[in-house]
């Protein structure tokens, strides 16, 4: 075929791929303007959903590509057939042995030259054969990488006569820097940016790694450090380039007027590009770190300075030059004039500095020469017209008129993901998730909400109505949200409803007036009640005990008078229970099931059967179906008639029945009219600027009245800080000490895991946060609840999305929305910072209301489809979308900020196990925080709100308790928190301790039991947190009273020795003499200590089965397990297996599990799970 140039009217005859008969691309859909090249059949998807050639495993593909590349290499270098076959055989043998093969230096050099030659987006390929290649695949450390990069900079710069060079490092190395020289971008508190916006994410990554500039020293021309990572299993390092390797060209202009304007702005740019974020594929082998140097075409720098999304200097220059660049003056072409002069200044400045640069006309002519040579040499060359045509005076360029073909030829240059987006300390890799493609049904789905039921039902006399009490108990706010929703559905039908927490309602009352009680509750911990339901839980358990005693006294004779009285005590009550939870927990919806069981035993009548809403399986849809059954049942009860006898007319609906009439074949349709906006509080301002209160904090401290604790220390626990412990594993004396646990198990071998081959990196961050809590008391095992705050980035994003200016003074004025927080947070900024949650995914009920604010009909329908809470919504949730993501996704949503604030859920407290003893550290409270960063299936990075908030707090002291002084240092952070007692996970004998007992008092009660009780402890990862409070508490007790020697064993499961938290404290405990040692043995289990092997606690437990059985059964030990849900269940199963194997009666697995169940019921097995 022929490619015609419509300027010269000449054609170039070429051969090459044609996609189909019509010569278009991909079924008549052109993808030429996409920034990233589309996928090809042989490409695989990575977890980030980007096309990842970097993890290719197919030996067949690699050998095929190796053969094709070696054939090209043989032809170009004139190799003999014998040499070609010998090399091919060697490559084949290497691939069969290792799955990969290694190129020679000559092959690397030629492969890189071909990759540049085949790069469709490069205009300077005329010089591809002159490319110099530095083969540095032997580097083994980050420092070596940096030294080589410095050498590369010097060689390529060549005193201003720039060279085309490429540096090839080992296959696994990565350069985080997208170019060697990049200008930083900082985000100010008001949301504005300083620097090059293109590098905002890279700047954030550098700051997370420890690089920073003091606030007063920051400019828009700060060069970022070089960030290198020679091995993905090692953490990256950053290095500042020396001054002699920072070539910068300051712009000047031959015209004094333009020259003065440009110099006043301090315009400059780097002298040479070093592209370092691309990969190169040569013969099936991909090299991820191949920084390439060349020289600039002046339009590249011009766009960097002038593009609106970059430095955007044209408005600033226009103001200095007194030129009008508004839309009204478009006809004057002032924008074009300034843009051309900026390019002229760039060429002038580089020429004055005697540094190589090329103008776009010369570059275009060079490409045309290259294209003709390629057509003669190999028939064609790939060319991307969109990228090659210069952005300035395009129509005057010969390339604008030239036809081109774009296709893939190997060797080639490949785009790859930025490494900080999948660096595991910044985020945890998700498991491979394949999201099925969901067909979009053109018909409407089932109706989810019926906000107004049969408007024709007149509102009857309120006094004659039977009350409907909607009660909730909630930890995260979901149960309360559901309770509010069901109340909104009932009010339009004239029902008299009340909304309250469970504990605010009394089931034990003299007034036996009939009432309907709708209960929505979550479950906390091991099937226990959340806040707001704990008093009811005590009452229910008391009633259960009374029933049990009655049944034991009379066998199963239910005619006994006491039981008959109990059975009639709640006959006045008609109830329905919706239990919310996650089936990942063994006691799924335990509290809701307890309520249902006891109410039935006490004679209450079910309105509809108990429903369990699983967070892992269409929770909202289950709730919605249950709500509709409630509505149907209430209609049949005719509650508007005060003479109704509820227990005689209960229309019990089977759990599978549908609230929609079976006689109807019409599927209900969603309509915006169905979803009514709530009554909003209007936004008003009183003109007063909120002043920070300085009054002293007064308890009791709760969620509504949290304590503002000063952060004393904020320490990273992963890494070298924990390296002291591993020496114990190497000492024969230490091993011998651990080998003897007690006289009964002297033959057991306690050997700590070897760690010589342990990797230095850990894939996450764990922080020790120390708070000042003067006068506070708490018990080991208790939780502290943290109320986080939203980031300034998220706050500003919401403000902008709602059409406000960040500098608006009204944001800091007291407003009418202060009543939402009982006047605790008075301004819009305070409310957005401390009160509403900006990071949780919007719930279906909220989506249905937000849909009414969308001005685009298609977007309205999509949002309503999400509001159904079905599969479409569940798949949307996989990306963990925030309200900000939603507003960005559906751009037609125009919602006032006051409406949005009233729709958003309040920030809920996050629970952390306390990892200190109040007696060991008076006036302090410690927590261990595993910093949460997740990667969604589509590659988005989601940071946990609370853990990342705590990570960013500013402490008062350094790690060694030196006060932090710096002219730029911030005041120590204050964190809102309160205590949540957790008697279920306290030390033996301390379950009923009050939080106000002093150390000398605890020696007078049963709290000495921790020293007298054998204990088995199992900690997984940061699950060691409560056990630290345990051993500190026992150390205090040990000093106050005589020591009793019992067995206390601690199993710890971590990835590598560097991840072993509180290693130095554990080492000190191990170093104690045998007669005073607090813990008999500490057994760390490293799941990633050696590459390719995994070992977990439950596997190591079997090696010590006789010891575990002896302490557990024969010595009546208490068992404590803390970790993720699955790890706790695995450890529990391992305990059952040990009992089954070691029990003299040869128990079955079921019998062994029953023993474990009995241990849990009697309080000897206690779990603190998270997940």
Strand content: 15-25%
Mean pLDDT: 81
Give the overall silhouette.
globular
Identify the CATH class of the domain at 459-550 and 563-644: Alpha Beta
Number of strands: 39
Cα-based radius of gyration, to the nearest Å: 35 Å
Count of helical stretches: 34
Biggest β-sheet, characterized?
6 strands, parallel
In helices, the fraction of residues equals 25-40%
> Could you say what the CATH topology of the domain at 459-550 and 563-644 is called?
Rossmann fold
Fourth-level CATH superfamily of the domain at 459-550 and 563-644: Flavodoxin domain
How far the N terminus sits from the C terminus, by CA atoms, comes to: 62 Å
How would you classify the helix and strand content by structural class?
Answer: alpha/beta
CATH architectural grouping of the domain at 459-550 and 563-644: 3-Layer(aba) Sandwich
Given as residue ranges, the uncertain stretches (5+ residues, pLDDT < 50) are 20-24, 37-53, 428-463, 555-561, 648-674, 723-762
Protein name: Nitric oxide synthase
Keywords: Calmodulin-binding, FAD, Flavoprotein, FMN, Heme, Iron, Metal-binding, NADP, Oxidoreductase
Catalytic activity: 2 L-arginine + 3 NADPH + 4 O2 + H(+) = 2 L-citrulline + 2 nitric oxide + 3 NADP(+) + 4 H2O
Domain Flavodoxin-like: 468-631
């Amino acid at each position: 075929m022929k490619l015609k140039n419509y300027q010269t009217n000449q054609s170039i005859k070429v051969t090459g791929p044609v996609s189909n008969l019509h010569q278009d691309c991909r079924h008549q859909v052109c993808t030429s303007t996409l920034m990233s090249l589309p996928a090809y059949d042989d490409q695989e998807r990575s977890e980030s959903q980007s096309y990842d050639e970097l993890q290719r495993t197919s030996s067949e593909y690699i050998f095929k590509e190796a053969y094709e590349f070696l054939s090209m290499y043989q032809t170009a270098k004139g190799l003999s057939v014998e040499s070609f076959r010998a090399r091919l055989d060697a490559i084949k043998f290497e691939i069969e042995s290792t799955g990969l093969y290694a190129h020679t230096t000559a092959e690397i050099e030629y492969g890189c030259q071909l990759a540049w030659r085949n790069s469709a987006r490069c205009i300077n390929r005329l010089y591809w054969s002159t490319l110099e290649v530095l083969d540095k695949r032997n580097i083994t450390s980050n420092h070596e990488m940096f030294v080589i990069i410095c050498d590369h900079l010097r060689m390529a710069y060549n005193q201003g006569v720039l060279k085309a060079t490429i540096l090839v490092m080992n296959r696994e190395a990565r350069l985080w820097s997208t170019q060697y020289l990049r200008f930083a971008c900082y985000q100010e508190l008001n949301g504005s940016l300083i620097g090059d916006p293109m590098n905002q994410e890279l700047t954030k990554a550098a700051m997370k790694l420890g690089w920073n500039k003091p606030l007063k020293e920051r400019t828009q021309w700060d060069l970022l450090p070089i960030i290198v990572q020679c091995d993905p299993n090692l953490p990256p390092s950053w290095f500042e380039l020396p001054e002699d390797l920072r070539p910068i060209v300051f712009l000047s202009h031959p015209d004094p007027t333009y020259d003065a304007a440009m110099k006043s702005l301090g315009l400059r740019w780097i002298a040479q590009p070093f592209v370092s974020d691309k990969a190169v594929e040569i013969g099936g082998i991909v090299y991820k770190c191949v920084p390439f140097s060349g020289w600039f075409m002046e339009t590249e720098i011009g766009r960097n300075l002038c593009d609106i999304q970059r430095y955007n200097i044209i408005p600033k220059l226009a103001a200095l030059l007194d030129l009008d660049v508004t839309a009204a003056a478009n006809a004057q072409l002032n924008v074009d004039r300034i843009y051309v002069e900026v390019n002229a200044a760039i060429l002038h400045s580089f020429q004055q500095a005697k540094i190589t640069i090329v103008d776009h006309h010369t570059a275009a002519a060079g490409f045309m020469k290259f294209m003709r040579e390629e057509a003669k040499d190999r028939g064609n060359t790939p060319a991307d017209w969109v990228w090659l045509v210069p952005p300035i005076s395009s129509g005057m360029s010969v390339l604008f008129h030239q036809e081109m073909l774009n296709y893939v030829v190997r060797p080639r240059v490949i785009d790859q993901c930025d490494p900080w987006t999948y660096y595991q300390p910044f985020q945890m890799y998700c498991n491979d998730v394949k999201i099925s493609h969901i067909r979009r049904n053109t018909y409407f789905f089932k109706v989810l909400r019926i906000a107004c039921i049969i408007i024709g039902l007149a509102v009857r006399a309120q006094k004659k109505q039977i009350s409907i009490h909607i009660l909730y108990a909630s930890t995260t706010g979901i149960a309360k949200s559901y309770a509010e929703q069901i109340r909104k559905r009932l009010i339009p039908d004239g029902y008299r409803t009340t909304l309250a927490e469970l504990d605010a309602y009394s089931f034990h009352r003299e007034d036996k007036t009939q009432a309907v009680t709708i209960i929505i509750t979550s479950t906390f911990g091991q099937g226990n009640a959340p806040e707001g339901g704990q008093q009811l839980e005590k009452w229910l358990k008391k009633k259960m005990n009374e029933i049990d005693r009655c049944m034991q006294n009379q066998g199963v004779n239910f005619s006994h008078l006491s039981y008959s009285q109990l059975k009639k005590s709640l006959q006045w009550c008609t109830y329905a229970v919706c239990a919310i939870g996650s089936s990942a927990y063994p006691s799924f919806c335990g509290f809701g099931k307890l309520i249902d069981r006891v109410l039935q035993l006490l004679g209450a009548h079910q309105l509809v059967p108990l429903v369990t809403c699983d967070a892992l399986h269409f929770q909202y849809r289950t709730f919605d179906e249950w709500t509709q059954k409630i509505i149907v049942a209430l209609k049949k009860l005719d509650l508007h008639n005060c003479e109704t006898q509820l227990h005689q007319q209960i229309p019990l609906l089977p759990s599978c029945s549908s609230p929609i009439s079976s006689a109807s074949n019409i599927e209900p349709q969603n309509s915006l009219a169905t979803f009514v906006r709530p009554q909003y509080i209007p936004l008003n301002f009183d003109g007063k600027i909120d002043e920070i209160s300085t009054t002293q904090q007064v308890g009791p401290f709760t969620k509504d009245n949290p304590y503002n604790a000063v952060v004393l220390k904020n320490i990273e626990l992963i890494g070298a800080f924990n390296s002291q412990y591993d020496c114990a594993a190497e000492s024969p004396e230490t091993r011998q000490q651990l080998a003897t646990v007690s006289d009964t198990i002297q033959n057991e071998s306690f050997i700590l895991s070897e760690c010589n081959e342990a990797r230095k990196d850990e894939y996450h961050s764990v922080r020790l946060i120390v708070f000042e809590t003067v006068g506070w008391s708490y018990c080991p095992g208790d939780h502290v609840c943290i109320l986080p705050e939203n980031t300034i980035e998220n706050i500003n994003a919401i403000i902008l999305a709602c059409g406000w200016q960040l500098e608006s003074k009204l944001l800091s004025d007291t407003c009418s929305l202060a009543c939402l927080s009982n006047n605790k947070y008075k301004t819009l900024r305070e409310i957005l910072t401390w009160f509403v949650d900006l990071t949780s995914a919007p719930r279906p009920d909220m989506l249905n209301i937000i849909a009414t604010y969308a001005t685009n009909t298609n977007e309205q329908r999509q949002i309503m489809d999400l509001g159904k809470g079905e599969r479409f919504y569940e798949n949307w949730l996989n990306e963990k979308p925030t309200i900000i993501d939603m507003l960005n996704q559906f751009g037609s949503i125009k919602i006032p900020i006051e409406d949005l604030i009233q729709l958003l859920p309040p920030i809920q407290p996050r629970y952390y196990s306390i990892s200190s003893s109040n007696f060991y550290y008076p006036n302090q409270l410690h927590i261990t925080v595993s910093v949460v960063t997740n990667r969604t299936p589509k590659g988005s990075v989601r940071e946990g709100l609370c853990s990342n908030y705590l990570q960013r707090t500013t402490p008062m002291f350094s790690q060694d308790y030196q006060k932090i002084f710096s002219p730029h240092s911030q005041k120590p952070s204050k964190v809102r928190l309160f205590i949540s007692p957790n008697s279920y996970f306290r030390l033996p004998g301390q379950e009923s301790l009050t939080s106000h007992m002093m150390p000398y008092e605890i020696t007078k009660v049963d709290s000495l039991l921790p020293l007298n009780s054998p204990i088995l402890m199992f900690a997984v990862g940061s699950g060691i947190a409560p056990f630290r409070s345990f051993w500190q508490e026992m150390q205090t007790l040990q000093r106050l009273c005589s020591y009793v020697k019992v067995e206390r064993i601690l199993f710890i499961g971590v990835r590598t020795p560097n991840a072993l938290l509180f290693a130095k404290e554990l080492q000190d405990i191990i170093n104690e003499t045998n007669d005073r040692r607090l813990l008999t043995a500490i057994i760390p289990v490293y799941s990633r200590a050696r590459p390719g092997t995994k070992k977990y606690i439950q596997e190591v437990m079997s090696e010590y089965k006789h010891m575990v059985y002896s302490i557990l059964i024969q010595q009546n030990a208490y068992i404590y397990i803390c970790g993720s849900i699955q790890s706790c269940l695995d450890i529990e199963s391992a305990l059952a297996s040990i009992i089954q194997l070691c029990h003299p009666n040869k128990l079955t697995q079921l019998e062994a599990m029953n023993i474990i169940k009995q241990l849990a019921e009697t309080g000897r097995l206690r779990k603190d799970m998270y997940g």
